[in-house]
Design brief:
There is one protein chain. The chain is α+β, with helices and mostly antiparallel strands. Strands 7-8-9-10-11-12-13-21 form an 8-stranded antiparallel β-barrel. Strand 5 and strand 6 form a beta hairpin. The longest helix has 22 residues. 39% of the residues are buried.
């Protein structure tokens, strides 16, 4: 399941997600400190300690690319510095508040659209209407057809960006986000399991606790697990059914831990349980230096005539140089602020085997289902988005040959029949010993979960009363209208929702252009590592992006400051691996520059179609390559077929 981004501009969200104040520091305004302008971009709103960071722009220190220099200052440093500075004007504060109100109004309009008007008269294509839908309709400001479909279904608007930007985030770092303690260093198989896209199926959500310091916090493929004195570690899991009862099997040593899911919602194992794990054995390294004011003196020399020198007679800075001119020295003193530095310490672990008590764990509430994409959600949206209910959940799409489909998300499932779509809550049950998923529509849809991972709803027909996307308005919004369609019930198989499912348009092998992107006659065919096919291809299943500028340039424009010996892509990837906030700050600004994106097949091939002539940059990374590689390659596209091969020769190292 995916990171949950609002349908509003993510750049705007970053700009105003901290409101106007970040606790006691006012953001989005300019201070003048010792003659230097400082623009407080944003501060960490989830950590209000003096050690948390704020992003500060330095407009007086412009880069060659036309963007200011950015630094990260601690909140404590700014709390001492800013009161000594010239404060922002009342006019600038009012301007920020007006912009905040505008962003709030746009957000509220997206989340609570007006009651249904008739579809706008300027719709590009028309569709029959039905009064059977109980959803409100208006122009839908989605960033893609997928996102608009999500909003039209009735899902929370703050979650609907996950269909595009969440998957973009996952692919953009090319499976490089390291889930804490989930991977054995150097193990490609473990890395692949931790980051590859999951096939549709069962998962479990929630945080479960019990006696003996048992804690299990589940995401879509693993659980952060601890018991006794052991430090938390990420363990992969699978879900099975045994005698009509669900069992969660966690990969532990010396033997797997199997927890039965009881009817009362608890997880249990009789125990005692022997667990191989680790304990914290101290830390090493790490350092910090505070920011400080630095005073510097500079002397310049002016050559003046004897006549001019007469006006400076007796000045100790006036010197005769032995020629026809005199030298007059000018000394100036300036004071500037020098940012502090911080390097995190390395936590050291030691192996330990612990005998833990029997596990009887109760749910302690909801949690983020997808830990990897939750990094971005926590950064951008905090706790604003609804969490998934604790317990068994489903993920992915299931499709029947009759036009009926169900796509599962953490909090709801989208039912689709033909072009009619509607989202409803759902639950996973095992009534009478038969595992089943129940979608709580006005007429509940109960589907048996079969051993071959198909869903069997039985026979008959099923009506979906919802909405459909009917085209685009002249202002670029998607337009929707009520729809009511009936499909025959049939077995639903794991699949993928495509543009053809949504619009009945002809589907192509390449992914569709981004909304608003001009169409052309160029085709760019991509092949990666031609000699390696199947699962061995380092780019198999990876997303590849066609950008309007190089990734390195885009990162630098956003203020990325790579350390010595590293480029911006390497620094960004390292931030993503470390789950640093900087990773998501950079991701948020990338989306407007994505011209196209395509997913490489198992043989490393992908195609971009309908491209206008021009220069582009192919960007992707692979942690499955040895060593890990990044591509940020300029390509020229002309009408007709163009081709490029990605391999070690045109890649750069990620480390």
């Amino acid at each position: 399941m995916s990171v949950r981004f609002t349908i509003l501009s993510v750049a705007a969200l970053i700009g105003f997600s901290s409101l106007v104040y970040a606790d006691d520091i006012q953001t989005h305004v300019t201070y003048v400190c010792n003659g230097e302008h400082l623009f407080i971009e944003n501060c960490n709103i989830r950590d209000l300690s003096d050690n948390s960071n704020c992003m500060v722009a330095h407009p007086d220190k412009m880069r060659p690319n036309g963007f200011p220099t950015y630094t990260y200052e601690t909140r404590g440093t700014l709390k001492k510095l800013l009161p000594t500075c010239q404060q922002p004007s009342a006019k600038s504060i009012a301007r920020v508040q007006a912009a905040q109100k505008k962003a709030d109004d746009a957000y509220n309009a997206a989340v609570n659209p007006p009651k249904p008007p008739t579809p706008p008269a300027n719709i590009v294509q028309n569709a029959p209407q039905s009064s059977s839908s109980n959803l409100s309709l208006s122009g839908v400001s989605g960033n893609s057809l997928t996102e608009a479909r999500c909003v039209v279904s009735g899902r929370d608007a703050k979650l609907c960006g996950e269909n595009e930007l969440g998957n973009w985030f996952e692919g953009a770092i090319a499976n490089g986000v390291n889930m804490a303690n989930a991977m054995v260093p150097g193990s490609a198989d473990t890395l692949k399991r931790a980051t590859n896209k999951l096939p549709p199926g069962l998962e479990i959500s929630g945080r479960y606790v019990g006696a003996g310091n048992w804690v299990l916090q589940f995401d879509d493929r693993s659980a952060m697990t601890s018991c006794g004195t052991l430090a938390p570690q990420q363990r992969f899991y699978t879900i099975e059914t045994v005698n009509g009862q669900f069992a969660i099997k966690l990969e532990m040593t010396p033997k797997p831990l199997v927890l039965s899911l009881r009817p009362d919602g608890t997880l249990a194992n009789a125990g005692p349980i022997v667990v191989n794990g680790v304990v914290v054995a101290g830390s090493s390294g790490g350092s910090s230096t505070p920011g400080k004011m630095v005073t510097s003196t500079a002397t310049t020399t002016e050559h003046i005539t004897p006549l001019e020198a007469q006006t400076h007679a007796g000045d100790s800075n006036l010197h005769y140089n032995g020629g026809a001119y005199y030298d007059l020295d000018h000394t100036t003193t300036t004071t500037t602020y020098q940012p502090g530095t911080y390097t995190a310490p390395t936590i050291n672990y030691a192996p330990k085997t612990e005998t833990c008590t029997q596990a009887v764990l109760k749910s302690s509430g909801k949690t983020q289902v997808d830990a990897m994409k939750g990094i971005a959600e926590n950064m951008l949206l905090g706790s604003q988005t609804p969490a998934a209910p604790a317990g068994l959940r489903m993920h992915g799409a299931y499709i029947a040959s009759t036009g009926l489909s169900v796509e599962f998300f953490p909090e709801s499932a989208i039912l689709e029949c033909g072009a009619a779509i509607r989202a409803y809550p759902y639950s996973v049950q095992a009534p009478g010993g038969q595992p089943a998923v129940r979608v709580d529509a006005p007429k509940p849809l109960v589907m048996a979960i079969k051993s071959d991972n198909t869903l069997d709803p039985g026979s008959g027909s099923y009506a979906v009363q919802g909405n459909r996307i009917v085209g685009k308005t002249q202002d670029g919004d998607f337009a929707a209208a009520p729809a009511n369609e009936t499909c025959s019930l049939a077995v639903l198989k794991p699949g993928t929702i495509t543009a053809a499912n949504m619009t009945s348009a002809n589907n192509s092998s390449s992914m569709a252009p981004q909304p608003g992107a001009p169409a052309g006659n160029g085709v760019l065919s991509l092949a990666a590592f031609p000699s390696q096919t199947g699962a061995g291809n380092p780019l198999a299943g990876h997303l590849v992006f066609l950008l309007k500028d190089s990734m390195n340039n885009l990162l630098m424009k956003q203020g990325m400051q790579p350390p010595a010996g590293k480029n911006a892509v390497q620094a960004w990837d390292a931030a993503c691996v470390q789950k640093a906030p900087l990773c998501q700050q950079m991701v948020a600004g990338m989306k407007p520059y994505v011209e196209r994106m395509a997913k490489a097949d198992d043989s490393g091939k992908a195609t971009f179609s309908n491209l206008p002539d021009g220069s582009y940059y192919l960007f992707t990374t692979s942690h499955n390559a040895n060593p890990p590689l990044a591509w940020d390659l300029r390509v020229e596209v002309k009408s007709g077929t163009n081709s490029v091969v990605l391999d070690q020769k045109n890649a750069g190292p990620l480390r």
